[in-house]
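Example for tutorial group B:
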């Protein structure tokens, strides 16, 4: 399956020319039984190893403290990010993609609120957002921990973020329009700590 990556509310206003409306990654769709219910599961199709650059950035068993930490050496514009979080005392934790590179606080937030069983993408500070009032949004989806952890595979392109959570049981796809100089990757936590069990950032271009 491949999908149109846009929204009719602002499709004619997005700040690109001459082309508008990219397509999503091609996906393989399957039915799986989860907690006794049939669920659609999506996985990105294709041989991603063939596109990978050398020497991915990796972390393991790293505590995220309250605040934002820019990951030196993980910057990029086209990336695959595979991360597993274990919740701690933080009410919210996650990643800030295509950030400003200085404080890391400005960018697209992909976060988890474990107390609300919620995954979200916050693009209010994702770059160019002023072309339509509906664009600077916080979009959410329900997600629960599996064996006490949350696993995300995130594909970042020059104007898009596609999130496959918990093995593709939950997916989110977002347009973004960051500045060319916004390339940093940061981790953050709010109100406490969380743990990165594993993180691998692979440059794809």
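The residue assignment follows.
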């Amino acid at each position: 399956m491949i999908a149109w990556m846009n929204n009719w509310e602002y499709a004619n206003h997005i700040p690109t020319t001459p082309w508008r409306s990219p397509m999503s990654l091609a996906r393989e769709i399957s039915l799986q039984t989860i907690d006794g219910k049939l669920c659609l599961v999506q996985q990105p199709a294709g041989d991603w190893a063939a596109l990978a650059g050398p020497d991915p950035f990796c972390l393991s068993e790293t505590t995220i403290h309250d605040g934002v930490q820019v990951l030196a050496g993980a910057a990029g514009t086209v990336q695959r990010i595979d991360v597993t979080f274990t919740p701690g005392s933080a009410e919210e934790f996650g990643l800030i993609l295509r950030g400003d590179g200085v404080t890391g606080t400005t960018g697209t937030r992909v976060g988890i609120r474990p107390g609300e069983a919620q995954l979200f993408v916050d693009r209010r500070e994702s770059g160019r957002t002023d072309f339509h009032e509906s664009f600077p949004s916080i979009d959410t989806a329900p997600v629960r921990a599996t064996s006490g952890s949350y696993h995300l595979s995130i594909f970042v392109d020059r104007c898009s973020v596609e999130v496959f959570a918990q093995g593709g049981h939950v997916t989110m796809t977002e347009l973004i329009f960051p500045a060319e100089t916004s390339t940093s990757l940061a981790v953050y936590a709010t109100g406490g700590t969380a743990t990165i069990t594993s993180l691998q950032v692979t440059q794809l271009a």
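The chain has a mean pLDDT of 94. Compare this with the pattern of hydrophobic and polar residues in the output above.
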